Amino acid sequence: MTRFSTILGCCLLLLSISVQAQQASHESRTLSYQGAIASSDGTSISGEREITVRFYSDADGHTLVWQDTYRAVVANGVFNLALGSGSQPLPASDVMSHPLWVGTQIGTAEEMRPLAPLSSSPFALSIADNSVTKEKMATDYVSSLSLNGQRISGRGADINLVTGDGINATVDPATNSLLLQAGATSLEGAKGGAVQGNTTISGSLTVTGTSFLGSSSAGVFVYSLGASQPVKSNASKMLVSGAIDLSNVSETDVSGILGVAHGGTGTTTAPVAGGVIYGASTSAYGSTAVGTSGQVLTSNGASAPTWQAGAFGLPSGAIVGFADNGTHAGFTDWGFSQTFGTNLWTTGLALPFGQNVMTSAVVGGKIYVIGGENGTFNNNQIYDPVANTWSTGAALPVGQWSMTSAVVGGKIYVIGGANGTFNNNQIYDPASDSWTTGVVLPIGEDDMTSATVSGKIYVIGGRFGTQNYNQIFTPSVNLYYYSKN
C-alpha cells in the first residue's frame, strides 16, 4: 500500500488556483486547482485517486467553511480539479472575499498539513479595462452626479461647483461637508454688484437704515428711504419713503382689486349710498339701488335683488288665522281686504273628508287634522305639504269635535271636546301610528284653546262653567293641576 506523507511539506506539492470567467447570467463558479503528489520515497504516483479538498477560515484548520470529494486521474503525480464542479458549489462571494486556507486529503490518508493559503493565479490579478462592475465593489461609491435630473459628471471627471448670485459655498474639512448658504441680503450683494436694470423680488423688501438708491445726476430721481419702512412707489413708479396708509381714502399708492377670499370686494365699483350689498357672484360683491319707503327687496335667486312694492305675505310653511272682531275693521267677511295686498293665498289639495270644529297639529313637517263634526268624528287625516298629498292615520279612539290639541315630545295630545264626554286625553304617536290615553282633563270642556310651554300643556277657557279655567297638564309625570278666578 502506498503511504502518503501527512506533512506535505516534505513532498512536492505545486498549487495553482485561478478563477474561471463567469457570464452575466451568473453561471456556477469554479476554481482551477492543480497539484503534484508523490509517495514518501519521492516516487511519482499515477492512476485514479479520490481527492478531498477543504477550505478553512483559519490557518490552523479549526473552522471548516467548504469541502468536496472528487475522483481524479493522476498522471506522473500531477492532478487537475475544477473546484465547485462537483456535488458542492463554491461558497458565496462574501465568504470567498475573506482569507481562506486550503487542505488536501488523498484517499483515506490524513489531510496534508500545513494548510496552504488560497490566492489568485497571476493572470487573475490583471483585470481588463471596464471589467469591474458595481456588484464586485464592497465599499460605498458614487457612480455619477446629476443636477435637476441632468447628469453632469463622467468617469473620473472633475466637478467644479460655482455658486450664483446671493449664494456662498464653503467646505467643512472636519465633517467633509459642502455648505451652501445665502449670501448678502442687500440688493447689491444679491446681484453681485451695482443694481442696474429690473430687479424682481419675491416676498417683501424692507429697508433698514437710511440709504440712497441711484445717483443725483441730471434726469435721475433719488429718494431717501426711512428706517424699517416698507417700500412703495408713486404714480411715476419711483421709490418713495413713508409707509402705505390704507386708512387714507385718497391713497394712490395701492391699486387693483382685492379678492373676496382676502377680505376684499372683488370689484372696483363703489357701493351705492343707501343700497344693500349682495353676492353678485362667488368672487365679487355688488350693491343694489336705493329703495323707497314701504318697498320690499326681492330676489329671484339669480340676478341682482330689486325693490318691489310692499305687500303683506305669509311666511313660507306657516298657516295664520285671523279672528273677526265683529266690526269687520280692515277685513272682509272671508279674506283679506285690499289693505294687505292681493294674490296672497294659494290652494292645496282638498281635505279628503270635510270636517268642521276639528283640531290640528304639526309633527315632522306633516299636518295632522283630527276629529271634527260631519257625520263621523274620529278621522285622522295627514297632509304632506311638500308632496301635496293626503293619507290617513289610526282613527281617534273616541270621536270628538270642538276639542284642542298640543304637541310634546313628538306626540299629539287631543284633549276634551264634545261628544257625550268632554274630558278625554287621547295621545297619538305618529312614529308608531298608535293611540294611548293619559290622565283625563279635571274639568271637561270644549271650544277651549291650548298652548305648550317648556313641556307643559296649558288648556285654557272653554264653553262650560265660568269659562276661565287654566288646566295644566305635565306629560312627563302624567299629572294635571288647574286654577280659576
Concise summary:
By secondary structure, the protein is an all-beta fold. It has helices spanning 93-96, 187-191, and strands at 16-19, 31-36, 47-56, 64-74, 78-83, 101-106, 116-117, 146-147, 150-151, 167-172, 177-182, 206-207, 211-212, 224-225, 229-230, 232-233, 239-240, 277-279, 285-287, 296-298, 306-308, 359-363, 366-370, 380-384, 389-392, 404-408, 411-415, 425-429, 434-437, 449-453, 456-460, 470-474, 479-483.
Kindly describe this structure.
The chain has 485 residues and is mainly beta. Among the domains are: 8-22 and 29-123, Immunoglobulin-like (Sandwich); 352-483, Kelch-type beta propeller (Neuraminidase). 2% of the residues lie in helices and 29% in strands. It has two helices and 33 strands. The protein has a four-stranded antiparallel sheet with strand order 4-3-6-7, with no helix packed on it. Strands 22-23-24-25 form a four-stranded antiparallel sheet, with no helix packed on it. Strand 32 (470-474) and strand 33 form a beta hairpin. The protein is elongated and about 150 Å long. Residues 1-27, 209-227 and 311-342 have low confidence and may be disordered.
